[in-house]
């Protein structure tokens, strides 16, 4: 009896403790003090944890927990195979947006009628770690052959499936998924969902999480099952005001997201009973990708945010901050530090406008300066002018010095190393004078912009480093200079709240490890929407997710960014004239008419210089100006010159006398085999036409070797050709470097395929180098047709063969000729047969691939290639 009494007392104590904990949780989650707003706006109500009585109703609490089938991610590449209904389907686009924002690799396939699937393996390794179906019915209705093939792949390579079912007016009330012990009930109206805290999927999603109120739409699908392989992830109740389908069994809660643990057929799945419109579905979708990929495709829990307040001291009377606004700013900053580690507002100032408001607003200016040590500070321009309007560096320096003197006078720190240009002018497109002035006056190391590479879509914004300054992507948060009243928010205040509660603003933090938010002084006066927005956002993120919010000073933040994304250090220049926003913040002295219309890309030693001179004979074709270092070649896209920026590049081109008919071009023979040049060129001049010349790769290799000998390359002088091309991995570095320059450009199919990745085949012309040497007039007629240049130039009358030189020259008046320089057309001893045999074997597979490529492109095979292919037989 004593034992029973003790057990009863222990049980009573436990119940009291649990009840106390639940009550405390409710009080804490409901408690939030927000004193800053003149409108006395409270935080948007959120429900962070399930109520105790809700937990008692969850059916999974009485079900024995099962362990999911283990996932082995080592057998596959970290790529998603995505089947969509069409290229433009909304759900498909939403899935892609999340994959791209998360920087997950994916391969999209439009779901075929019979369920045909692309190749799933490559050399015994799985190509995909997860398969996603926009419409799960397309998966279960595949023909038996393809479904068996896909499911065998999933089992063998430990690959999982994610599927969605979006009901419509034509959906049957209930559906049984073919081959699975699972029923779907469609077009159900739901409310009050709760996240299952025992789901193994959950990582970012915080549970238990209750979302009160009706779920959007009346077209939900719920899942019913009686197999232990299934576990609910998200459970909901029926809306009592809307009759459910008659076939729907009665239950306390219904699952609208379920996980198949793989206990039925060895394949793990996660199924969604709607699309991704509902914000919790987005969270669970991201967690599902992480879990089912064995954490190969996983987002970190760390989130770094920086809130910039631009235009301090700038603004019309009535829109600025007074003393109470500044006090609210300080109070909210302290409040945010309880949820965002080290949170500090970052204030951007233009000193010229200090004390230009009302008396109350001037007092607010003074309180800001008395509180200078409470914030971080960064400079705008003194007069808030756009830097691209200043055409010389000295004028920018003068403006910056005025702002710096103001900062020193008022005790504002000047060593943060961060600056932002008004309207992002001069940051991108780059105004090099701004970068130089920033470094001279402020020693700037970091800036940010929303314009690189473009404003929209925001998920494509990236960072880059230029001229020693790290440029970070900046995010908008729906607050602009005119956004100052809650009730007048564009689209209504519910749009702002929707953005905070699972909408665009919430997703910005969810999908970006680092977010710099742009706000304005006016957002912190009047209704103080800036404070309202970020206080509510931090509260919603911390109550809904397991994300760890924190803030770093700008320089440390930039260093963290490029640690996470080292591939973004190099910029990818775009054409400023293709984006109206970019044209508006680009110097009026600059013009895109200085960009070439076509490129001659090489490779070297194939006749590119001869083609260059032939092109210059045409009255409507104009080349770049010569370079003091690389002569007729600019060599912009393939090396360090690229980092000098597009202004440097365009300075090489004259202004065409007729921008409609004249064609600018450049010839840089190193572009052909460069890994970077195709992508860079396509980014800046995507409509440019590309010309390449091919000769026998063995002859090209030998010609390059002799070229290096003539330029007294030590390796070429020390080793004979055969020793160079046959050298092993253990050979000295100088001979290996020469070998690479001899052999690698001859991998013609590899390099052309790289260019075709970025340019359509219609913009590529492949010239037979032998024909150019023997019959240049015919080749130049083909080139003119390809370029669409006018007038037609008669090369048959303009060229003459010089028997002494051994090649064709330009025929001048009086019978004189203009030929290539002495360095061209050198007479070399013939290649030795041993080297010829080795190279013929070395290039055999490359030549076969080239023949396949030319056949695919509908282009004839050069005579030298036909001869080499005959040796293969």
From TrEMBL:
Residues 596-845 form the Sulfotransferase domain. It is a single-pass type II membrane protein. GO terms for cellular component: Golgi membrane. Disulfide bonds join 809-819. Keywords: Disulfide bond, Glycoprotein, Golgi apparatus, Hydrolase, Membrane, Multifunctional enzyme, Signal-anchor, Transferase, Transmembrane, Transmembrane helix. InterPro entries: Heparan_SO4_deacetylase_dom, HSNSD_N, NST/OST, P-loop_NTPase, Sulfotransferase_dom. Its main location: Golgi. GO terms for molecular function: deacetylase activity; heparan sulfate N-sulfotransferase activity; hydrolase activity. It holds the Pfam family HSNSD-CE. It comes from the Eukaryota. Belongs to the sulfotransferase 1 family. NDST subfamily. This is [heparan sulfate]-glucosamine N-sulfotransferase. It comes from Cochlearius cochlearius. The lineage of its organism: Eukaryota, Metazoa, Chordata, Craniata, Vertebrata.
């Amino acid at each position: 009896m004593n034992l029973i009494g003790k057990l009863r007392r222990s049980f009573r104590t436990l119940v009291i403790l649990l009840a106390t904990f639940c009550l405390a949780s409710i009080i804490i989650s409901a408690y939030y003090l927000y004193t800053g707003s003149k409108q006395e706006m409270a935080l948007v109500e959120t429900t962070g944890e399930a109520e105790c009585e809700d937990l008692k109703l969850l059916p999974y609490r009485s079900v024995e927990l099962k362990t999911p089938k283990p996932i082995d991610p080592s057998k596959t590449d970290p790529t998603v195979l995505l089947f969509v209904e069409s290229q433009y389907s909304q759900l498909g686009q939403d899935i892609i947006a999340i994959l791209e924002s998360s920087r997950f690799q994916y391969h999209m396939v439009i779901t075929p009628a019979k369920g045909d699937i692309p190749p799933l393996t490559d050399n015994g390794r799985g190509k995909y770690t997860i398969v996603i179906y926009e419409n799960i019915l397309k998966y279960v209705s595949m023909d038996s052959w393809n479904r068996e093939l896909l499911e065998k792949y999933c089992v063998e390579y430990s690959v999982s499936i994610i599927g969605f079912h979006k009901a419509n007016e034509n959906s049957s009330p209930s559906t049984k998924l073919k081959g699975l012990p699972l029923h779907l009930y469609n077009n159900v109206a739901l409310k009050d969902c709760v996240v299952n805290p025992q789901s193994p999927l959950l990582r970012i999603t915080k549970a238990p999480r209750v979302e009160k109120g009706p779920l959007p739409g009346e077209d939900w699908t719920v899942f019913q099952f009686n197999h232990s392989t299934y576990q609910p992830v998200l459970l909901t109740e029926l809306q009592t005001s809307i009759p459910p389908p008659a076939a729907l069994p009665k239950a306390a809660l219904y699952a609208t997201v379920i996980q198949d643990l793989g206990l039925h057929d060895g394949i793990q799945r996660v199924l969604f009973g709607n699309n991704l419109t509902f914000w919790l579905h987005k969270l669970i979708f991201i967690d599902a990708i992480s879990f089912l990929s064995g954490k190969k495709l996983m987002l970190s829990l760390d989130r770094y945010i920086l809130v910039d307040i631009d235009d301090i001291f700038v603004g019309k009377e009535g829109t600025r901050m007074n003393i109470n606004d500044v006090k609210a700013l300080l109070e909210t900053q302290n409040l945010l530090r309880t949820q965002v580690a080290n949170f500090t507002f970052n204030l951007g100032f233009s000193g010229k406008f200090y004390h230009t408001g009302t008396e109350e607003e001037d007092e607010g200016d003074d309180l800001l300066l008395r509180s200078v040590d409470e914030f971080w500070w960064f400079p705008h321009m003194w007069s808030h002018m756009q830097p691209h309007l200043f055409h010389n560096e000295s004028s920018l320096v003068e403006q910056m010095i005025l702002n710096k003197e103001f900062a020193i006078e008022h005790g504002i720190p000047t060593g943060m190393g961060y600056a932002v240009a008004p309207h992002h002018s001069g940051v991108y497109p780059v105004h090099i004078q701004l970068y130089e002035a920033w470094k001279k006056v402020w020693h700037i190391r970091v800036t940010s912009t929303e314009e690189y590479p473009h404003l929209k879509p925001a998920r494509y914004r990236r960072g880059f480093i230029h001229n020693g300054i790290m440029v970070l992507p900046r995010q908008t948060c729906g607050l602009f200079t005119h956004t100052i009243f809650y009730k007048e928010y564009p689209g209504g205040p519910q749009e702002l709240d929707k953005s905070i509660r699972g909408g665009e603003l919430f997703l910005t933090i969810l999908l970006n490890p680092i977010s710099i938010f742009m706000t304005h002084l006016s957002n912190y006066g009047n209704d103080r929407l800036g404070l309202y927005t970020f206080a509510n956002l931090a509260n919603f993120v911390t109550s809904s997710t397991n994300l760890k919010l924190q803030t770093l000073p700008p320089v440390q933040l930039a260093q963290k960014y490029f640690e996470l994304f080292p591939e973004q250090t190099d910029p990818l220049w775009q054409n400023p004239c293709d984006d109206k926003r970019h044209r508006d913040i680009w110097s009026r002295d600059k013009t895109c008419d200085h960009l070439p219309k076509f490129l001659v890309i090489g490779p070297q030693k194939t006749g590119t210089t001869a083609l260059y001179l032939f092109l210059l004979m045409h009255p409507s074709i104009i080349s770049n100006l010569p370079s003091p270092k690389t002569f007729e070649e600019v060599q912009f896209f393939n090396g360090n010159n690229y980092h000098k920026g597009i202004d440097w590049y365009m300075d090489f081109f004259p202004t065409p006398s007729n921008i409609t008919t004249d064609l600018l071009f450049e010839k840089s023979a190193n572009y052909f085999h460069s890994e970077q040049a195709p992508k860079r060129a396509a980014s800046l001049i995507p409509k440019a036409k590309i010309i390449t010349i091919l000769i026998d790769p063995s002859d090209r290799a030998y010609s390059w070797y002799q070229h290096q000998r003539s330029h007294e390359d030590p390796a070429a002088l020390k080793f004979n050709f055969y020793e160079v091309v046959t050298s092993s991995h253990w050979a000295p570095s100088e001979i290996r470097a020469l070998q690479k320059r001899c052999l690698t450009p001859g991998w013609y199919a590899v390099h052309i395929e790289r260019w075709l990745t970025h340019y359509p085949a219609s913009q590529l012309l492949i010239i037979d180098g032998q024909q150019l040497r023997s019959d240049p007039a015919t080749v130049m007629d083909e080139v003119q047709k390809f370029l669409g240049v006018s007038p037609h130039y008669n090369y048959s009358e303009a060229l003459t063969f010089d028997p002494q030189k051994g090649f064709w020259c330009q025929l001048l008046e009086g019978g004189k000729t203009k030929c290539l320089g002495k360095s061209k057309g050198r007479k070399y001893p013939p290649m030795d047969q041993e080297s010829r045999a080795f190279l013929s074997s070395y290039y055999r597979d490359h030549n076969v691939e080239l023949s396949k490529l030319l056949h695919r492109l509908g282009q004839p095979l050069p005579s030298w290639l036909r001869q080499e292919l005959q040796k293969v037989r």
